[in-house]
Amino acid sequence: MATHAVEAVDLVKTYPAGRKKPPLRALDGLTVSVPEGIVLGLLGPNGAGKSTTVKILTTLSRADSGSARVAGYDVGQEQDKVRHAIGYVPQKSSSDPMATGIENLVLSGRIFGLSRPDAIRRANELLARFGLTEHGGRPVRTYSGGMQRKLDVALGLVHRPKVLFLDEPTTGLDPEARADLWNEVLRMSGQEGLTVLLTTHYLEEADRLAGQLAIVDHGKIVAEGTPEALKAGLRGDSVQVELVDPDTDGTVRTLLRQLSGIGEVIVEGNVLRARVDRGATAVPAVLGALEDKAIPVAAVTVSRPSLDDVYLQHTGRSFRITEEAA
Predict the structure, then answer these.
(1) Could you tell me if 26 and 13 are in contact, meaning their C-beta atoms sit under 8 angstroms apart?
(2) Is 106 found in the same domain as 196?
(3) Cα(first)–Cα(last) distance of the chain, in Å?
(4) Among 20, 58, 245, 260, whose CB has the most other CB atoms within 10 angstroms?
(5) For residue 185, which of 121, 89, 105, 82 has the smallest C-alpha distance?
């Protein structure tokens, strides 16, 4: 049986009220566990509680209640041991932009107790590993966004941690740099057995990287499992209809709910989404019903279940719409 590298039980965190704002309950009984040697993806829109979870697990914040252990250590009682057992890559770069890449890595190694020769040796290993050797002598401020992010991950690995936390690691990266970082995360987990806890608001990233996925909504885990298992749990197909005009009075929603073989109808603005038993037979029925009521349609698509459908199933909201609102 696999042991758990990270265990959190009933974490609650409330931030005090701001000026003219009520208190914010960022975590509301969040419980999650991460087996050793896998990538766990925490998927949720901005504001769902992902970063707060990571801050508590990395000892940067304290929960109001609940418990958590990382690499076998209690995050509240054994903070120093936790910090030496983990690597942490925050959303914003933690490197010194005026120092060179190798200077940043050597300093990090020295902070974690490596001798200077060992820190230099480890820095050169990591520069080579991330394809940064020829850039190691340049100031970090001259790096591209992808190069800076690679250096950030390298900084998190200097002391060979047991668990690596990546908080929104690819935000702002171009597609090529994002793909490069994805490949490195998969290699760290697959070939080296490193446990990785990754927060993301990219559905494709969660689908590609996560061996185990936990969907976060309003400070709680609302669904867990492998991406494939979560998608397989949804029967049938997903139909999305883009209307010319928004369904402001609920006519479209009421109309479609009367059709057989169609369930879970969600209308958000001018986009209608529904779970259907068979897309091939449902689409003609949907379009026919809308045409009978003179409701114009701009586009229609049919697809197999996606993580967006999983999110919709467990929260009642489209991930895309929720993310845009956040």
Answers:
(1) yes
(2) yes
(3) 39
(4) 58
(5) 89
Q: What are the tens digits of pLDDT across the range 84-127? A: 999 999 988 989 999 999 999 999 999 999 999 999 999 999 99
The highest-confidence range among 7-21, 97-111, 179-193, 271-285, by mean pLDDT, is 97-111
Q: What is the pLDDT of residue 25?
A: 93
The total number of residues shown for the chain amounts to 326
* Domain annotation covers residue 275: yes
Helix %, strand %, coil % of the chain (to 5): 40, 30, 35
Six-digit token string for 229: 């298992």
3-class SS of residue 267: strand
With 0-12 CB in 10 A as exposed, 13-18 as middle and 19+ as buried, what is 109?
buried
- Mark whether 89 and 213 lie in a shared domain: yes
- Same domain? For 141 and 179 the reply is yes
Q: Which two tokens stand for residue 280?
A: 């091939």
Sign of CA dihedral 166, 171, 177, 179: positive
At residue 200, the pLDDT reads 92
Separation between Cα atoms, residue 163 and residue 33, nearest integer Å: 13
Could you tell me the pTM of the whole model?
Answer: 0.84
Cα distance between residue 174 and residue 179, in whole Å:
9
One-letter identity of residue 302: V
DSSP 139: B
User: 50 lies in which domain range?
Assistant: 4-229
